[in-house]
Amino acid sequence: MTESYPKGTSRRAALGALGLAGVGALTAGCGSPIAAGIAGTGPDATSLTYWNLFTGGDGINMVAMTDRFRARHHNVHVDAVTLAWGTPYYTKLALAVIGDRPPDVAITHLSRLPTLAEGNLVEPLRPADLTAHGLTGDRFTAAAWRKGQVGGAQYAVPLDTHPFVMFYRTDVCAKAGLLDGSGKLKPIEGTDGLVAALSACAKVTGGYGGVVNVNADPATCWRWFDTLYGQLGGQVLADNGTRIVLDEAKAEKALSFARELTVQRKLMPSNIDGSGVTQLFASGKVGLLFDGEWQIPTYQGAKTPFSVAPVPNLFGGTYHCFADSHALILPRNGRRDARRRDASLTLVRGLLDNSLIWAKGGHIPAFREIQDSATFRRMEPQSQYVPAAKAAIYDPAGWYSGAGSDFENIMGFAVSAVEAGQLHPAAAIAQLRRKLADYASRPAPVGGTNS
Amino acid sequence: MTATVAAPAGALPGVKDEPRAAGVIGQTRAGWGLLTPFLVLYLAFLIGPAVYGLLMSFFDGSSVRPGLGPFAGLDNYTEALTSADFWSSMWHTVLFTILTTPPLVIVALLLAMLTDRIRRGKWFFRLVFFAPYVMPVTCVGLVFTWMYVPQTGLFATWLGALGLPAPAWLADPNWAMIAIALMTVWWTIGFNFVLYLAGLQDIPRELYEASAVDGAGPGAQWWRITVPLLSRTTVLVTMLQIIASLKVFDQIYLLTAGGPNYSTRPVIEYIYDVGFTDFRTGYGAAASMLYFVVILAVSAVWFAISRRRA
């Protein structure tokens, strides 16, 4: 063994040298985030960490936006971190703030914002700072900007609105006679209208007419139900999630209609998962697809002939469809000084300025300058469903609700069981009541009070 | 077997006692010294957090509030023990264990016996049966999700070719757990297989030869020699398998996320849901402690059995 060392060097000396080299590497790396994290010094004021939860097409777009920002702002160094969507992201964000190592800027869903604000995990944005960076309410989609407020204070700057929409295959719908002269989908009115359109598509495909995800994706099931139930004017929670206001008659109507399409009429599959949905729509085995607009890149990539329209108004009431927004927040950080706050808001503004790239992912930019721009207006099919953003009503507030929450799971699992024919609407409603009551009656683990 | 009984060193004539004793003390010190890094890690990352978890379970803690939170006494335990959701998730874990343990023990034994009988190219079968075990759960989950796809998936195609209707594997509450168990058996059988193969190779060939001389057929040899001499391996494999199955989480989370309609949510996912998604660390800790007691009881049974056999 010893012969592998140079002459006159003992093993101990060699190991010692290795150890010294290691210490040297550590101290030399003081500028690195790891060393700064260990020492607790924090990086330079103009060096920002930015956390987001975007992968896939959205991830690529976000990287492009960050790169553009970097190219224009050499004095701000952005360290972008991508984390997995959903519960893990919000858990990590919360723990990072509690552990005093928060990112400077982070993405949140607006439906999650009330919980983050009540948990004191996010900093309110001062009006003066916002004005200084040109981030004022009049320059954003009103619904999204309002949802960025909690208790009268602005906490988040919205990046987009992402509604639940209706995709349609232009080839299938053309054969089914559902398109107008300009190749756009003719308006579909009422539940009868949708049943007729689905039947027409089913005749063309020889199988199903449309599709919505049923299996193993409670979030999508909740979005579909919320779209139907919301059009009936129904609400699920009130008073910050402490009261269940589920309207049984309306919920039963919505659930029965969802079930009618799958189980009774077999116009949509009652047993289908995410990859199955993509397969059916991309291969033209259905004409209509109900899903989030963020799936647009999937079908553009698959060269599917398709377009997108808002989900039709099925029950004749005030128009509603599920929607949420991505927004930018400054997680709470006691060490954030004026300079760092300024740099953080510069990044926020920079991302908004580049949100035309973001729109490629299907999202409707919340920044009006981009939304009203001629380039976005020409963007197909994105410009087709802008009204959905203006009508957005977000998930009800409550410590257990919001994107990827247990509320979505409880609602989604019950809806899925109804669509799959495993549960009758009345039984599903009873289950919903029981499970929700468990949460509504409990003191919130977030914030000081329930109010 | 040549058994040599070592004489106690102290009984040897001409060796003084003092230097030996000092040497032993020195060795003990060195032993502890060598153990220290492990002990520090063990205390810091296992014992410490476990004690902290026990402490947490008596408080209404939240992951978005610093500190332990208000004292809750036994409230968290009462809530878990009276929660229908907790018990149904407990049952799903037990159901998964019942569905996976017998095949993972019996099929592993059969595969090991077949491989053991092969004269040439044994390495190939060892590799083939063990290979799935080294695959990450995400890959296995993804592959099986595709195979379980209704209508177009591989399983549906195969059954269709046989003229059989395919069940809604992951969407039917009656089938979802079976589908997950099936995937788990394929994925993890390699580990038990290797243990059994090692056990089989430890059985002296002379026993078979001697019994053949005495006129024992293959059946008698299997029942009178193989099975009894493998019993220690069987106890080990079974108990390790039960404990592994009781800890199921990953593949269920990836395949069904606990659905359809919570019908496959195992207790660890329940703990994850209440502890992380709902921020309720105190309650999550209490549920974990209850579950820890179950695992401890199973381990105690193993300990008792293996001690008796030793």
Descriptive notes:
The complex is a heterodimer of chains A (451) and B (310). Chain A is α+β, with helices and mostly antiparallel strands. In chain A, strands 7, 8, 11, 12, 13 and 15 form a six-stranded mixed β-sheet that branches. A five-stranded mixed β-sheet of chain A has the order 2-1-3-14-6. Chain A has a two-stranded antiparallel ribbon with strand order 4-5. The radius of gyration of chain A is 25 Å and the shape is globular. Chain A starts with 10 loop residues before the first helix and ends in an 11-residue tail after the last helix. Chain B has a domain of 180 residues: MetI-like (MetI-like fold, Orthogonal Bundle), CATH 1.10.3720. Chain B is 71% helix and 0% strand. Chain B has 13 helices and no strands. In chain B, helix 3 runs antiparallel to helix 10. The N terminus of chain B is likely disordered. Classes of the chains: A alpha+beta (451), B mainly alpha (310).
Mass-distribution shape of chain A: globular
What is the architecture of the largest domain in chain A at the second tier of CATH?
A: 3-Layer(aba) Sandwich
Give the mean pLDDT of chain B.
88
Largest sheet of chain A: 6 strands, mixed
Looking at how many chains there are and whether they match, the oligomeric state comes to heterodimer
Task: Assign the CATH architecture of one domain in chain B.
Answer: Orthogonal Bundle
| Euclidean distance between termini CA atoms of chain B | 19 Å
Number of strands of chain A: 15
For the record, what CATH class of one domain in chain B applies? Mainly Alpha
Rg value of chain A: 25 Å
Strand content of chain B: under 5%
Mean pLDDT of chain A: 88
Round the Cα radius of gyration of chain B to an integer and report it: 26 Å
Uncertain residue segments of chain A: 1-7, 23-31
The share of residues in helices of chain A is 40-55%
Structural class designation of chain B: mainly alpha
Number of strands of chain B: 0
Subcellular location (chain B): Cell membrane
InterPro entries (chain B): MetI-like, MetI-like_sf, UgpAE/MalFG_permease
Main location (chain B): membrane
Membrane topology (chain B): Multi-pass membrane protein
